[in-house]
From TrEMBL:
Its membrane topology: Multi-pass membrane protein
UniProt GO molecular function: antiporter activity; monoatomic cation transmembrane transporter activity
GO CC terms of this entry: plasma membrane
Entry protein name: Na+/H+ antiporter subunit E
TM region positions: 6-30
Domain of life: Bacteria
InterPro entries in the record: Cation_antiport_E (IPR002758)
Keyword tags: Antiport, Cell membrane, Membrane, Transmembrane, Transmembrane helix, Transport
Family: Belongs to the CPA3 antiporters (TC 2.A.63) subunit E family.
Length: 112
């Protein structure tokens, strides 16, 4: 039963990534096609609940693979990720979005 639960969590994480990939690609494409660039790039720190190096690496990779965001660094203790966003209106909102999507899905996979 645990194997099925974990397999389902992996599928959900993959589907979430594909959804985020297409949505963010669409947003980046719209920004590129606009005659006037109206972005607010920024760097923010995001605390993570993930503990293992594997979990943190996976989150960092998923952030980097999603257009418009890039993981710049991870603190030595692994608790904070420094992320660059192409268009950042609110750092708290962006952190909340990452935590409620990728981070939660990763925890479902690794802690099932």
């Amino acid at each position: 039963m645990i194997i099925l639960k974990r397999a389902w969590a992996v599928i959900k994480l993959f589907v979430l990534f594909v959804k985020e990939l297409f949505l963010s690609s669409y947003v980046v494409l719209l920004q590129i096609l606009k005659p006037k660039l109206s972005i607010r790039p920024g760097i923010f720190a995001m605390k993570t609940e993930l503990k293992s190096d594997w979990e943190i690496t996976l989150l960092s990779c998923l952030i980097c693979l999603t257009p418009g965001t890039l993981t710049l660094d991870v603190s030595r203790d692994g608790e904070t990720l420094y992320i660059h966003a192409m268009d950042m209106e609110d750092a708290e909102q962006l952190s909340h979005q990452i935590k409620n999507s990728f981070e939660r899905a990763i925890m479902e996979v690794t802690r099932a």
